[in-house]
Amino acid sequence: MVDLRSDTITRPTPEMREAMARAEVGDDVFGEDPTVNRLEAMAADLLGKEAGLFVASGTMGNLVALLTHCRRGDEAIVGDKSHTLRYEQGGMAALGGIMPHVVPNLDDGTMALEAIEAAIRPPNVHFPRTRLVALENTHNLCAGVPLTAAYTRRVGELAHARGLKMHIDGARLFNAAAALGLPARELAAPADSVTFCLSKGLCAPVGSVLVGSAAFIAEARRARKVVGGGMRQAGVIAAAGIVALEKMRARLVEDHRRARRLAAGWGALPAVTVEPVHTNMVYFAVDESVPLAAQAIVAALRERGVLLLAVGGRRFRAVTHYWIDDAAVEQAIAALGEVLSAA
Ligand code: TLP
Questions:
Q1: Per-residue pLDDT tens for 264-298?
Q2: Is the model's pTM score more than 0.90?
Q3: Class level of CATH domain 7-247
């Protein structure tokens, strides 16, 4: 199967499995897992922060960050298309009593600086306290667009000038860094905390890392524990994360090249409109002239060995990753052509 549903479907490489089998482990809740400690230190170093915290998922990383920055009744400014708002079950509100203050995301994944500024509450006994601005880089629903270092810096300056913290959901921060040709630490520099995922384009089977100052991470460690994220001999999975960081970052540009090829192939089909491709995501729409519902298109593609997601209306998403080679890309292009011409 050519599985383009997500880069989360990536299975570990043989080298990762070997590292997992050999991993030295200890009880991470006691801080005694040498492999987890090494991964956390590597991640912090790569992103230019003092400390890191290995967590089970991107969702847990964002939740733990929000629980650490905000108290109950506080407010966090988030984009209306952000993953944290849309796809994390409202965990900040459900578990943290944190109120999202929603600001529109523009097509380039940003929120207008004036809109962020306008969302910050002045001190007033009627208002919640604004504590945090959260960005997403790359921005999933905005077609995987990377946020620039300059924009990130400006939001950081605004947040800090107003006494707020800034968090980045950098689930795919290394894709952003690869696309912009920048070290990831430059994109992370203005933020007080950043999460990134090992289990997406970097191909590890499980896990994300949250990074920030030593004091922030010490508090975040408590928050991770209360949400059940103390994982004990987690070195077995952290070992794959170390391979991911060492070996898989440099190749992300190949995923981006293949995404552009997919977009060019699909974009040449009548009735298909492809959105601009920035990283490893290809979003496209099939117009109403094709008498097939979105789910019927997905099913017909599946019959031809190609999996992708319908993401609302007639919009679809395909994501390239380590297990998608050039032949898989050509198969996917041909399959959509066949499905649409048969319709
Ligand atoms: N995104 C998944 C789905 O949940 C939609 C995907 O296939 O893209 N932040 C961003 C920007 C994400 O895209 C995701 C996962 C997460 C956080 C959450 O990561 P996990 O799934 O590890 O909890």
A1: 999 999 999 999 999 999 999 999 999 999 999 99
A2: yes
A3: alpha beta
